[in-house]
Write a structure and sequence with these properties.
- The protein is α+β, with helices and mostly antiparallel strands.
- The strands form two sheets. Strands 1, 2, 3, 4, 5, 6, 7, 8, 9, 10 and 20 form an eleven-stranded mixed sheet that branches.
- The protein starts with a strand and ends with a strand.
- The structure holds pyridoxal-5'-phosphate (PLP).
- Pyridoxal-5'-phosphate binds next to β14 and α5.
Length: about 350
């Protein structure tokens, strides 16, 4: 057993490695896991020291509250290798902050910044060889916290596990997506948990998304729960709409996740002198723009795909196609942000974090 320089994280190395079984040229997204994981237990009112241990199953009592009350939250982030094989993170402290925002909303104890960052760094160091070096590939990082404490009473648990797992992943691009603007179901509600990355938010999206897939769409565009008149998010991504040459995205609220990609895109677009409006956007405005030809682009923005361009949308039994653009904002912004992430371009904003 080793400990990190500051004695915070202990490291127990796996005796064997699965790395030889991995085809790094054909990685899918988030479906194979590295040799180690981080585990940190909350017991007796305090977080214990984080431990890097061999990757493997977790044993829980059937009465653990995660199973009954869904007290669980997560994050999604990536580590990137540059051409010199240095490793970089992108705005990792924002992920830590957001994990604690989610924790507070779900009555989960907050995780200290050094436990998160030192734990993550120790894990990435042990599994450094697992971080993909191929163009477009990266290490998808999944930090999560769940209620491991027991009891059938509906109240917060007294024990939790904070864990981080690593999934070397290929680029997410799977072509343009066709989306359905949702008129009945909601992802989140006023005063609810939409702004948190709570596991249950995603479970609640599955059924309406299945219905949309049955109708021939890939994803759902979520609208506000009250009137279904306002565009809010695209699947598990923030949404941007380009009308003429203006890029529009809704303001974050207690129904919308404050995406790190979204806020980075807003900054980069402004720097590119693209007109950006952060304001409420109605479905009616988007439909009218599609009809008069001023709707140029729509895309989702999130860590996994970075930018996911939309080819068209369905609304009230009618499909609207978007034009194919030679020089889209989507491809310009994706290149700008990924060049910063992979240390290929100057980082004026100070977003890169060297490991
Ligand atoms: C609901 C939702 N919206 C937006 C995003 C995009 O956030 P980020 O750019 O921080 O990955 C995510 C993914 O994390 C999400 O789950």
């Amino acid at each position: 057993m080793e400990t990190t320089a500051n004695n915070l994280v202990t490291v127990e190395k796996s005796k064997t490695s699965k790395i030889d079984q991995v085809d790094f040229d054909n990685l899918s997204f988030g479906s194979i896991y590295s040799d180690h994981m981080l585990v940190c237990d909350y017991k007796n009112g305090a977080w214990e020291n984080p431990k890097v241990v061999p990757y493997g199953p977790v044993s829980l009592d059937p009465s653990a509250k995660i199973f009954h009350y869904g007290q669980s939250i997560f994050e999604g982030m990536k580590a990137y290798k540059d051409s010199e094989e240095s490793t970089w993170l992108f705005r990792p402290l924002d992920n830590h902050k957001r994990l604690n925002i989610s924790a507070k909303r779900l009555a989960i104890p907050e995780i200290p910044e050094d436990y998160f960052m030192e734990g993550l760094k120790a894990l990435l160091k042990v599994d450094d060889q697992w971080i993909p070096k191929n163009e477009g590939s990266s290490m998808y990082i999944r930090p999560f916290i769940f209620a491991s404490g027991q009891g059938f009473h509906a109240s917060p648990a007294n024990e939790y596990k904070f864990m981080i797992c690593l999934a070397p992943s290929g680029s997410y691009f799977s072509g343009k997506v066709k989306v359905l603007i949702e008129e009945k179901y909601s992802r989140s509600a006023n005063g609810g948990v939409g702004y948190a990355k709570a596991g249950g938010n995603y479970a609640g999206q599955f059924y309406p998304t299945q219905l949309a897939v049955e109708k021939g769409y890939n994803q759902v565009i979520w609208t506000d729960d009250n009137t279904h008149e306002y565009i809010e998010e695209a699947g598990a991504m923030n949404i941007f709409v380009r009308i003429n040459d203006t890029l529009i995205t809704g303001p974050t609220s207690d129904r919308i996740l404050d995406g790190i990609t979204r806020k980075s895109i807003i900054e980069i677009a402004k720097e590119e002198k693209i007109a950006v409006e952060v304001r409420k956007l109605t479905v009616a405005e988007v439909v009218a723009a599609a009809k008069d030809g001023s709707l140029k682009e729509m895309f989702g923005a999130g860590t996994a795909a970075v930018i996911s361009p939309i080819s068209g949308f369905g609304f009230k039994e009618t499909d609207y196609d978007l034009p194919e653009l030679e020089e889209s904002y989507a491809s310009l912004l994706k290149k700008r942000i990924t060049d910063i992430q992979y240390n290929k371009a100057e980082d004026k904003f100070g977003w890169r974090y060297k490991l």
